[in-house]
Design brief:
The protein has about 170 residues and is α+β, with helices and mostly antiparallel strands. A hairpin with a 5-residue loop joins strand 2 and strand 3. The longest helix has 23 residues. It has two domains: about 110 residues, 3-Layer(aba) Sandwich (hypothetical protein tt1634), CATH 3.40.1520; about 50 residues, no CATH class. The chain has a five-stranded antiparallel sheet, sandwiched between helices.
Length: about 170
């Protein structure tokens, strides 16, 4: 079971810096992230999402490989594997990119955008879906990032939520 934690920052770049730190913590095996999304609300009030996984590019590359493979096999049947490779790659890449654009992974984009409407302009939020963590070490690193992080929302138990707020605040 993963836990969702949303940290708010008083600056536009605070959440991006925190995500970079979370990725560093993951490399040191102190945090196991399932997904991390940065939400920025610019000074003009526009909401910007920065996903940790680019699903459009991922869909394109996997669709390209699968399409090229099947195109080559069909091309062998019709004695023109090169044409099959090219046609299959184009069709597969396009289909994969569209599928990636329309799919959602991890944290719901609708949920992130809905919560983003509540942010003030010039601020940011980091949405992290955590499988497991060593909270003491993670909070020590996040506390010194700057931008004054504060807990906006969490799916942690009430006791863990209160402890997280106490440690960060």
């Amino acid at each position: 079971m993963s836990d969702l934690v949303v940290l708010g920052f008083d600056t536009e770049d605070g959440a991006a810096n925190a995500r970079t730190e979370c990725l560093s913590l993951q490399e040191r095996y102190l945090l196991d992230l399932e997904d991390a999304v940065v939400l920025r609300k610019s000074a003009d009030g526009k909401i910007h999402l920065d996903q940790s996984v680019n699903l459009t590019a991922l869909g394109f590359s996997s669709g390209l490989a699968i399409g090229a493979f099947w195109g080559t096999l069909l091309g062998l049947i019709f004695l023109n594997p090169l044409a099959g490779f090219v046609a299959g790659g184009i069709a597969g890449g396009g289909t994969g990119a569209i599928e990636g654009k329309l799919s959602d992974y991890g944290i719901s984009d609708d949920f992130v955008k809905k919560l983003g409407t509540q942010l003030q302009s010039g601020t940011s939020a980091l949405f992290i879906l955590v499988r497991k963590a060593q909270p003491e070490k993670v909070i020590d690193d996040l506390r010194y990032l700057g931008g004054h992080p504060h807990v906006i929302q969490t799916s942690l138990s009430p006791e863990a939520d209160a402890e997280l707020k106490r440690l960060i605040g």
